[in-house]
Specification:
By secondary structure, the protein is mostly helical. It is built from 5 helices and 3 strands, in the order H-H-E-H-H-E-E-H. A 3-stranded antiparallel β-sheet has the order 1-3-2. Strand 2 and strand 3 (about 80-85) form a beta hairpin. Helix 1 runs antiparallel to helix 4 and helix 2 packs across helix 4. About 10% of the residues are buried.
């Protein structure tokens, strides 16, 4: 039973945070953010050669990042330049990296446990 006074998902910050999750939901988008973190500002024409994706695909990823509020873009003549929306995006990447590393460590431990259990079961069956 839901207690009264507790708001359900749908508050503006919940929605904004979910949009950030959508922006981070593809490895190419993460890689684009890393590129922008390493270079202050890049044109789409400088981002595209880094990936084996057609220009329209890169454009869609950039739009998703912009819609999520993770990057901002500006026109410079015929070029559109992209940069991280704030220093917080760089921090977000660092936090995501730490969480992923911890998760990978736990996954590796579980895989090792399963291998050990399997080997024990095989040995047990061999002696029966």
């Amino acid at each position: 039973m839901v207690q009264q006074g507790i708001e359900c998902a749908g508050a503006p910050l919940d929605i904004g945070s979910a949009n950030i999750g959508v922006g981070l939901a593809h490895p190419i988008r993460i890689a684009i953010l890393r590129l922008l973190a390493a270079h202050d500002e890049l044109c789409s024409c400088e981002i595209e050669p880094c990936f084996e994706v057609d220009p329209s695909g890169i454009s869609r990823h950039l739009t998703a990042l912009r819609d999520a509020g993770l990057i901002v873009s500006r026109r410079d003549g015929v070029r559109i330049l992209h940069r991280l929306a704030s220093e917080h995006v760089r921090e977000l990447l660092a936090v995501a990296d730490r969480i992923a590393a911890e998760s990978e460590g736990r996954s590796q431990e579980r895989r090792e446990e399963r291998r050990t259990q399997y080997r024990s079961e095989v040995k047990r069956r061999e002696h029966v």
